[in-house]
Input
Amino acid sequence: MRIPEGKRLWLFDLAHGNLKGMPVVQGFIKYYALAGKGTADVVQDIVFRTSYGVDGVQLAKETLARELYEFAAMDFEETRTISEVKAIVAAVRAGHNVQIAYADPDDSFDPLVGIACY
Output
């Protein structure tokens, strides 16, 4: 069975140390997690469907484990639920002013500036 081009390139880059951060996680989710597969399947594909050798397998395993762990440990900000977003949209469409809490750490805080209403 032939490996699709995008997956083949992702495996190559993973096994050769060319990927770091989110591209590792995104590739794993796209090519494996969404298909109900796990990290062992990545290793199996490298071992049986490529010629990247033991070093490539080891590097891929270490990189994948590290990046997935770091992703899982990330502290994501709270997000709105779809119900909250729908309520905000409905209120704006009905002509109500809606004040939405928003914080941007790059903006300087000025207590004299009001929060925008939409």
Remarks:
- The helical segments are 5-15, 22-31, 39-49, 53-73, 82-93.
